[in-house]
Write a structure and sequence with these properties.
Low-confidence stretches: none
Radius of gyration: 17 Å
CATH topology: Nucleotidyltransferase, domain 5
Number of helices: 7
Number of strands: 6
Number of domains: 1
Order of helices and strands: EEEEHEHEHHHHH
Oligomer: single chain
CATH superfamily: Ribonuclease H-like superfamily/Ribonuclease H
Amino acid sequence: MRIFVYKDDLPASSIPGNVGPVAVDTEAMGLLHGRDRLCLVQLSFNDGNAHLIQFKNDYAAPNLRKILGDKDITKIFHFARFDISIIRYYLETWALPCYCTKIASRLVRTYTDNHSLKDLCLELLNIKLNKLQQSSDWGNDDLTDKQRSYAASDVLYLHKIKERLDLMLERENRKELAQKCFEFLPTRIELDLMGWENVDIFNHQM
């Protein structure tokens, strides 16, 4: 495994010739888009390497935008609702089509309430993740080795997790339902960005 760190954009030379599904994650200063800036976008092209793109104030990133906005490339996320939303807010592009391992897990792993990336890695891949850096300061100009390893681990296993969850979705006849959920995410995100983040407009009680 190799971890590459770049400033402001993904170099064109780092993009494979034939890009298949790409694993994507983000790190920010917090969870509120209008207050907390996007600091990092992580990618993995399923080759065992992780590419970390750091941002400060310049979000032009033409090469990264090209990958994220390519309609022929599926972007694999864990909790896509947040990542796609903050990418849309700061990079002004839709990272679609997408696959969300958290949604897929909730649809098929109904025997548990544990659907974090850490839980999926442990159960499906027998890999134990260290999540201690999750709430660290991602705005630092120089990431620590622990931060780099943590950020890389958030994308390095998503392809394999997707493979396992796809088998379970197929087994439980919920693959089509999962796809419909993934396709609905842009609408859910638009509601989030317009202020309905914590409101279920489908709930009769609201």
